[in-house]
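Supplementary Methods, section 5.1.

A reviewer requested that the exact input to the structure prediction be made available. We therefore reproduce it here, unchanged from the version used in the analyses.
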Amino acid sequence: MESAGEILKKSYANQSQMDLKTSSSDSPLPDDSAEGSGLGQPDCPHCGGLGYVIPNVPPVDPRFGRALPCTCRAAEREMARIDGLLKLSQLGALRDCTFDAFLPDGHGLTPGKQLNLKMAYDRALAYAQNPEGWLVLKGGYGCGKTHLAAAIANQRIAMGHPALFVNTPDLLDHLRATFSPTSPTGYDERFEQIRNTPLLILDDLGAQSNSDWAQEKLYQIFNHRYNSRLATVVTTNLELEAIEIRIRSRMVDPSLVQIIHIAAPDFRRAGVDQEQSELSSLSLHHDKTFDNFNLRERELPRAQANNLRNALETAREFADTPSDWLVLNSVGYGNGKTHLAAAIANEIQKKGEPVLFILVPDLLDHLRATFNPASGMRYDKRFDEVKTAPLLVLDDLGTESATAWAREKLYQLFNYRYSARLPTVITTATLIDEIDPRLATRMLDGSRCTFFLLEVPSYRGGIKPKRSRKR
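The structure derived from this sequence is encoded cell-by-cell as follows.
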C-alpha cells in the first residue's frame, strides 16, 4: 500500500512517467485530469500550443515515446501541484497563516513575552526549513500556536513537500467516516496515509472526545511515528500531565522532541496586565538589586572576589535574557545566592513580567494546604500555577522536609519545567551529590542549565562582632 508521501511524489514530480491516452491517430497523449487543461502557450516554439512535447531521445531512454508537459506550462503545473497539496493537507481557511503574516512581537507584550514569542517563531521557522524530529507547541487559547503550525505546513507545501495538517477531532472523524459503506476510501488506506505521511501536523491535541477507541487510534499513530522517527508537529492547550500517559511518554523524549511553551496571552486580549501570584514572597526581597550587591572586594582573596563577580555577571545575563535554567549553588549559607536570585526576579518584574519567587519549604506547605477541606484553592490549580509560571525562582532547595510526597512533587515540577524549557532559577546550599538524582540530572544538563558554584564564605562569617563599651 502506498504512503501519502509516495502518492504526492507521483502527483507533482516534474519528470515522472505519465499514463498515456491514445488518440484516433494513435498519438500518445497524457491524461489531463491530474495536470489541468493541457493547453500550452499559443506561440510556444516547442509545443505550438499543444502543451506537451515528445522528447527526441533514443529508445533506451525511459522518456522515449512519452508526452511530457512543455516548459510553457510550468506556472500552470505549479499551481495545480500546490492546489493538490493543499487539498491533502486540509488547511482550508488557514492557507493565509504564513510566517510572513505572523507578528513575532505580538500586540502590547512585555519584553519577556516578546522574547518568548520570537523564540517560538524562530524555532518554528527553522523547523519548517528542515523538519526533523517532533515539535510540540504548547500554550493557551489564542497565543499563536495554530498559526505557527499552519505556517510550517504552508511553507513545506510552498517548497514542494507534502504536509498533512489536520485538527485532532477531525482526524478521528475522518477515520470513523471510512467505516461508512459509501466511503470512497477504506479505513486501512486512510490510516496508513496518516501514519506514514512525511510531515504530520496535529492541531489541538486534547480537544477530541477521549473514548477508548479514540485513545487507541491516537496512540497507534503516535507510536508508529515515534518508532519511525517521522516528522510531527503537535499543538495543545493541555498540560503535559493531562495527556494520555502512553502518548505523553513519547512527547517528552528530549532526544526526539522539542517542547515550546508559548507564554503570550490570547492575541485578542494582548496588553492586559498580568497580576503577580499571591504565592510569591518577592516583596520581602524588594531591596535586593544588582546595584547594591556587595562584591566584598576588600574582604575576599582575589580568586574568591573574581568568583563572586562572575556570579553577578551570570545573574545579570540571565535577567537580560531569561531562558532555560540557572542554578546558584554554594557550600553554606549567607554568601549571596538569594540576593542574586531576588535581583533577577526584581529586574524582570520591573519590566512588567510576572515572577513567582518562593522558598521551597513554603511551596510544599502551599500545596499541602489545598488538601484542607476549607481551602478555597484546588490542588491541581495551585500546582499548575507553579509549574507554568513564566519565571519561577525556587529559593533554598534542600531545606524542605524530604518526605516521599515532597520528593515526588518536586520531581514533577522539575520534570515539567525541564521538558517545557521554562525559565527557572534555583538556589541551594546542598551538595549536588546529596540532591535527589532525578532533580540533579536536570540541574547538571549543560545544554539547558547554567550551574554556578559560589566559592565564597558567608558574609556573616567575615564580620567581627562589635565590642561592648566599658562603663
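The chain has 14 helices and 14 strands. These observations are discussed further in the main text.
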